[in-house]
Design goal:
This protein is mainly alpha-helical and 242 residues long. It has five helices and five strands; from the N terminus they run H-E-E-E-E-H-H-E-H-H. It has two domains: 100 residues, no CATH class; 112 residues. The radius of gyration is 55 Å and the shape is elongated.
């Protein structure tokens, strides 16, 4: 006897049907070489079997009992045969495996050919990308150098123009103002405080001068380096274009 989940479901449905209609279902499964046989249905209804064209299947004990007393219930046994063809499933699975192996082999050949073509194209594209990167770096460096030079030139021009416009009169006025401020501060604050302030101012001026000198030196070095890089890049571009 073989048990399976769908038979349990059928058993529950049969029990409910038995309570409702009076027909009881009893399920049996026998596993053989190529077939699964089931099901016997026992009818509790009063059926006129000769009119239905059926004959009841009874055992010896039931035949003996039928001679002594009449039966109210007849038993109709119906056998439903389900044929399971294993060979067809095996052949279909083998054909599926062979087709999948053929597909995998063809896909591997396609991938190998595509990888070879992609490697050749990547080699040619890498050289082009290298040239493009060199040109882009050179262009960026040139733009930065031009911007720095323009800014420095503008600052120098502004300073020169302001100094020329101010002239000697502006310098004299500034000196007079400084002297007046120093005298007023000395009178109101004292000599010691003025000397301390002057020392701090001198130190500040020295620091500013040093910073300016360092900035100028750095700018000059950057300009020289940029010029050298631009010249080298121009030569490289000329060689590549040739």
């Amino acid at each position: 006897m073989v048990q399976s989940p769908f038979l349990s479901v059928y058993w529950v449905i049969g029990s409910a049907w038995d309570h409702i209609t009076g027909i009881s279902f009893s399920w049996r499964i026998q596993k053989q070489t190529m077939r699964l046989k089931y099901v016997s249905i026992e009818s509790r209804l009063n059926v006129d079997l000769p009119k239905a064209g059926l004959e009841p299947r009874t055992s010896r004990s039931e035949s003996r009992a039928s001679t002594t007393r009449p039966r109210r219930h007849t038993k109709v046994e119906v056998v439903v045969v389900v044929v399971v063809v294993c060979s067809s499933s095996r052949s279909s699975s083998s054909s599926i495996r062979s087709s999948s192996s053929n597909n995998s082999s063809s896909s591997s050949s396609n991938s190998s050919s595509s990888s070879s073509s992609s490697s050749s194209s990547s080699n040619s594209s890498s050289s082009r990308v290298a040239v493009v990167l060199v040109v882009a770096v050179v262009v960026i460096v040139v733009v930065v150098v031009v911007v720095v030079v323009v800014v420095v030139v503008v600052v120098v021009v502004v300073v020169v123009v302001v100094a020329a416009a101010a002239g000697a009169a502006a310098v004299i006025v500034l000196v007079v103002l400084v002297v007046v401020i120093v005298v007023v501060v000395v009178v109101h604050v004292g000599v010691e405080v003025v000397v301390e302030v002057v020392v701090h101012v001198v130190v500040l001026v020295v620091v500013v001068v040093v910073v300016v000198v360092v900035v100028v030196v750095v700018v000059v070095v950057v300009v020289v380096v940029v010029v050298v890089v631009v010249v080298a890049a121009a030569k490289v571009i000329q060689i590549v274009l040739e």
